[in-house]
Amino acid sequence: AQSVTQPDIHITVSEGASLELRCNYSYGATPYLFWYVQSPGQGLQLLLKYFSGDTLVQGIKGFEAEFKRSQSSFNLRKPSVHWSDAAEYFCAVALTDKLIFGTGTRLQVFP
Amino acid sequence: DTGVSQNPRHKITKRGQNVTFRCDPISEHNRLYWYRQTLGQGPEFLTYFQNEAQLEKSRLLSDRFSAERPKGSFSTLEIQRTEQGDSAMYLCASSPKGGQFDPGVSNEQFFGPGTRLTVL
Predict the structure, then answer these.
(1) How distant is the Cα of A31 from the closest Cα of chain B, in angstroms?
(2) Cα→Cα distances B33→A40, A68, A83, B44, B94, Å
(3) Which tens digits make up the pLDDT trace of B95-107?
(4) Which of residues 69-88 of A touch B (CB under 8 A)?
(5) I need a labelling partner for B96 at 20 to 30 A (CA). Which of A16, A80, B37, B83 fits?
């Protein structure tokens, strides 16, 4: 069955440090992949998406993600984290007309 | 603001009561989705509409749940005889995609702020 795994439940980084959030998917065909961010009391905001083409995808707020088919991964990265990046991050794969989400990674940022 | 809106934002009810949530999608988006998110989990798909037609329902959507989108615009999600296990955030999303799933067409979904349901 199609699924998304986010191995890290909680990550803590210092402001200004680099960040990588892991995402692995299980999907038979070429996946359509997404990263969403959810701040407390807010809805999900799309950071970036991958459909095809260049495997390095640029998103909003300085985020990028790299699709690696051989590793079934779509990890999210940011070179320098800001305190406002503290939030919950969800990786998702599109299964026909719906999204399958991972369980999320909570990011905490220390000053 | 022309984003997806949901009302109410919070709902507290007693077990056994019925509740109804409303979602207003982005104007002219013909796809509308409902998801449920429990604490510590990612959103789980419940159902979706293409215009007024309900095209798919998850097995998570028991017979106590019913969703409608009568005129292809706003949608309602009703839960009858609520149970404590129904406590969750109910998220609505809309998408501009019009036809069948097409690998060449964006499947981006725009989410509302959610309705948090607490069943006592």
Answers:
(1) 10
(2) 21, 29, 32, 11, 6
(3) 886 544 454 455 6
(4) none
(5) B37
